[in-house]
Design brief:
Blueprint (H helix, E strand, L loop, with lengths): L1 E6 L4 E8 L2 E9 L4 H16 L8 E7 L3 H18 L3 E5 H8 L5 E9 L2 E8 L2 E2 L4 E4 H12 L5 E3 L2 H8 L8 E3 L6 H10 L34
Helix pairs in contact: 1-2, 3-6
């Protein structure tokens, strides 16, 4: 199966073509904003490098989060629009699941993303099997969960949250294996895309907490409410 992967959820903008585990074309740039201007051209170039054109793509996979609110919207809109134009299925891929696969290791793997505000987005896996759902956790809570699940073994921490946790609790993670990837690998994304069931892995954003920005309390030109006496 030839899949086109689209990833704009974290610290990179990526488009790649993978067929049966072989990376045929890839364009990726580290960025936290500007995905909208770059993504379409990167996808075009990745498909051109792979050969065969967009018509050779069997399925499209797009990261659904957790991650950047703005980045997620850009990637999802692009992938869904392209899927409609090509009449190809579009599946959603969790960034945490993809990070865990990217670690390429067995044992306990903690996929952790820096969520700021003293939190990480986290999901734990043992030998490739998820131990629970994705959650937004305080740093200390995430640390307790990881070490409790490790039960004396050496955990692997993968994702941007790995460095945050190890720097905050250096003694507790002194022996942990750190893999502070900015984004999942294209091979991991493609593997999950190919294995997904399009009827259940829907391309919908996965938000684990409310956005930092809040809507205005009044419309432009609307008078302010009277101050309480």
């Amino acid at each position: 199966m030839r899949v086109l992967i689209v990833d704009t959820a974290l610290g990179a903008c990526s488009a790649g073509v993978v067929e049966d585990g072989r990376l045929l074309g890839l364009r990726t740039e580290l960025m936290t904003k500007g995905h909208q201007e770059r993504l379409a051209g990167m996808a075009r170039d990745a498909v051109a490098e792979a050969g065969g054109g967009f018509g050779a793509v069997d399925r499209i996979g797009v990261t659904v989060g957790p991650g950047s609110f703005t980045g997620l919207r850009v990637g999802l809109a692009f992938a869904q629009g392209l899927g409609a134009a090509l009449d190809r299925p579009v599946v959603g891929v969790s960034t945490l699941d993809a990070l865990a696969v990217s670690a390429l290791t067995e044992g306990l793997v903690a996929a952790v993303i820096d969520a700021r505000r003293g939190q990480v987005y986290a999901r734990l896996f043992r030998d490739g099997v998820a131990l629970g759902e994705a959650e937004a956790l305080a740093l200390e809570t995430a640390t307790d969960r990881i070490l409790e699940a490790a039960a004396g073994s050496i955990p692997t921490l993968v994702g941007s949250g790995a460095q945050i946790l190890s720097e905050t609790f250096p003694d507790r993670f002194a022996e942990a294996v750190l893999t502070p990837l900015a984004a999942p690998t294209p091979e991991a994304l493609a593997s999950l895309t190919a294995a997904a069931d399009p009827t259940t892995a829907l391309p919908r954003p996965l938000y684990l907490r409310a956005p930092d920005a809040t809507p205005p309390s009044r419309l432009p030109g609307q008078p302010r409410p009277p101050a309480a006496s």
